[in-house]
UniProtKB/TrEMBL annotation:
This is Replication factor A C-terminal domain-containing protein. Coiled coil: none annotated. Residues 9-100 form the Replication factor A C-terminal domain. Pfam families: Rep_fac-A_C. It comes from the Eukaryota. It comes from Vitis vinifera.
Amino acid sequence: MEDDKPWTLMCGLVAMDHTNFCYRVCSACERTLPDTATTNSTPSLCNVCNFNSSKPPSKRLFRVLVSIASDTKVFVVICFDRAARVLFGCSADEFFDFVKLHPFAAVTAGKVLEGEMFRMTLSKPKNGNAQHLRVVSVVPLRSGFQPAIETLRELYGVKRGGP
């Protein structure tokens, strides 16, 4: 753990921050868009790539703070989109839309994932200002693991693809 190489550990998920689980990026170049995009009804457009496409101008990506516990230590780590999709089982846009319809779904997702065991590969941040370890990969250790969205759909009685 002293060098900058990623390392793998077995851990349990202790808690998840459900208050700010995603951010907006440009659909074309994936640069982060200003936070004003989430408060307006019209999302901000990227002024770097001069977005011009049939795709929506922006999309959401996961950025979730998670507390995990190994056999010796508790870590606060950050799961970006690729790793968080394993936990949630859907895109950040899909989860955001689900939470809009079911306001307590984000809290419930944290409760659903609490106690699950994973093999996680962690790395130190490349950005000197960043304060949390990054989750490079997540592998559930329980054979019956269900991503959070599947359990939420069952709890809320929502069929796949529906609201």
